[in-house]
Structure formats: C-alpha cells, structure tokens
Write a structure and sequence with these properties.
With 304 residues, the chain is an alpha/beta fold. The protein contains nine helices and 13 strands. The structure holds adenosine-5'-diphosphate and magnesium ion. The site of magnesium ion (MG) has 3 residues, from helix 1.
C-alpha cells in the first residue's frame, strides 16, 4: 500500500537525510520505522503525505506515485499524529478532532457525532469534549491527537513519535491501546520511534535504520529478538546489556506475561498451549492475537 522505491532526499544545505531507501508497507500493517535521532525517520514519513518530496526515487500509495497527487487532497486521506499532539490550543477537544471531517465537508452535527465516536475509540471521557488542550494531561492530549488523526477515517495513519513526551506508565497504556485499536480498525499505520521497546511492543514489521535511513534490519519483533542481524541491532535492542533478559510471569487474570529484566511487562503470550499444564482455557481470547511485544517464542531470546 505504501512503497518506497530507491528514495533519496538531499536537503538544500547538502544533508543527505535518506539514501536509496526502499520498503513495502503492507496494507493494514503497523510498520515501525525505528532508529536513533537524525537517522531520517521523520523525513521518510513526511514523504508519504508530501510534506517532503524526494530528490530522487518514488513513493507510491496504492500503486500511484504521490508526486502526481495534490498534497491537500492527499493529506485528507492520510492522518498525521505528532509528538506534541499538534493540537490547536485555541480550539476545544471536539473542535480539534472534527477539523479534518469539517474540511472534508461533513456537517456540524455529523462531525459532532463522529467526534464522540472517536473519543470513545481512544478512551477519552466524553466530558472532556469542551476542554482546551492546555486543560488536559499529556496522555489525554496524545489521545486527542490520535482521535483527530483517525477522525476522517484515513487510509493511512502516520505517527511520528506520538508517545515520546508522556510518562512511561501512560505510554505503555497508549501503546497497548493503539495495538488494540489497530486490530479493530485495520488502518495502515506507519509509526516512527527511537525507542526499541516501543517498536517491539507495536510493530507487525520493524525497520531499524541508521544515518541516511540505511536499513540495518527489517523483520518481525520476534526476528529482531531471536536473530539480531548485527552488533548495531544487538546494541540497540539492549541485548548486550542484558536488558532484554525475559521471563514469564502469570498475571492475576491468568494470562502469561513476558517480563523484562526490570520487571516491565514486554508482552502477553497469546499462543495456545504455551503452558498447557496450567492453562486449561488456552483458546483465543479477545485481543490476544493483537498483543504485541516479543511474540511467542521470544523467550528463546539470548539472555545475558
Ligand atoms: N529541512 C531540513 N534541512 C536540512 N536538513 C534537514 C532538514 N530536515 C531534516 N534534516 C536533517 O536530515 C537528517 C534526518 O532528519 P530527520 O528525518 O528529522 O531524522 P529523525 O526523524 O530520524 O530524527 C538529520 O541530519 C537532520 O538534521
Ligand atoms: Mg524525527
């Protein structure tokens, strides 16, 4: 659905942010571009909605080169969520969420209804609708940002470090919810982060980049943990510091949670029969397959 074909971006000052980058982002996937600051993630993401045009190469959406598309029309089909939510401070939560549907010609009443649905979808109390962004917590602001990004029912949602500024607890809740939401709506999501934990928790597919958007490894979270491609990946994953020493714990609700060396939950094991001896109801349960983090099998990851 999104195809990068040998894309290069050289900025006016000579900086080559992206060099000969190619990638297929499957329709309906949640693909994560991960890598350190400055490696070219934002530049790649902005090529999809033409906030940045490549110097050479092509970006295709549904087989069509975006270079031939009107940027305004293109952006109405592509949601965009930024790190600091990007909310308009002088507009209420409801007005912020309704922005693109209204631009697309939706009438006020329908937009209000849509706003309510979106707030429900991202877990925002309806009573917050008339507040201004400054009257919300960081986590709530990010939820509004996600609701706004999805309000026009876009084909693609671009998310650029959307949870970077919220505290870790809220952050994992937002990640869990995004995973669930993605399972529900099936929108193609391209997600950028410099945080490998986040990449592992969210991605169907992860693309780990270094300077110039050079791909170090591309694969599922399980492949990353089980078979890191090289020392850069190993270091980035924290495998060299033993931070990813995983073990299993049983949560109060009976599910098996994978926990890292710091006691942080890294995922939920969803595969039936993983621990057959004390898991009589090992059949699928709601949301189980949508859970992310190291996939079943990643407990075989190297330990330090
Ligand atoms: N408008 C610009 N002009 C010049 N250089 C830029 C511009 N935008 C980004 N860069 C440079 O391109 C590189 C990649 O930037 P960016 O895509 O923002 O990286 P990331 O999102 O991975 O942190 C960096 O070296 C950055 O300084
Ligand atoms: Mg960036």
């Amino acid at each position: 659905m999104i195809s990068y074909r040998s894309v290069t971006k050289r900025f006016a000052d000579g900086t080559v942010a992206v060099r000969d980058f190619s990638l297929e982002v499957p329709r309906g996937s949640l693909t994560v571009l991960a890598g350190s600051s400055g490696c070219g993630k934002t530049t790649l993401m902005r090529m999809v909605n033409r906030m940045v045009d490549p110097t050479s190469g092509q970006v295709l959406v549904d087989g069509e080169d975006v270079a031939g598309r009107n940027p305004v029309a293109l952006r109405r089909r592509i949601g965009y969520v930024m790190q600091n939510s990007g909310l308009l401070p002088h507009r209420t939560v409801a007005q912020n969420i309704a922005t693109v549907p209204r631009l697309n010609g939706m009438d006020r009443r329908a937009a209000r209804r849509r706003t309510g649905e979106m707030m429900d979808l991202v877990g925002l109390d309806a009573q917050l609708a008339d507040r201004y962004p400054a009257q919300l917590s960081g986590g709530q602001q990010q939820r509004v940002g996600v609701a706004r990004g999805l309000a026009a029912d876009p084909d693609i949602l671009l998310m650029d470090e959307p949870f970077g500024a919220v505290d870790p607890l809220v952050r994992s809740e937002l990640q869990r919810q995004l995973r669930q939401l993605h399972g529900q709506i099936g929108t193609t999501i391209l997600f950028v982060t410099h945080d490998m934990d986040e990449a592992l928790a969210l991605g169907d597919q992860i693309v780990l980049l270094r300077t110039g958007a050079q791909v170090d490894q591309q694969g599922t979270p399980r492949q990353f943990v089980a078979e890191p491609a090289n020392d850069f990946v190993r270091t980035f994953l924290g495998l060299d510091r033993g931070q990813r020493t995983l073990h299993r714990e049983r949560a109060a609700d009976g599910s098996v949670v994978v926990v890292d060396a710091h006691g942080r939950p890294a995922g939920v094991l969803a595969e039936p029969g993983d621990q057959p001896e004390d898991q009589p109801d090992a059949g699928p349960h709601p949301g189980a397959t949508a859970e992310a983090g190291p996939r079943p099998g990643s407990q075989d990851a190297p330990t330090a």
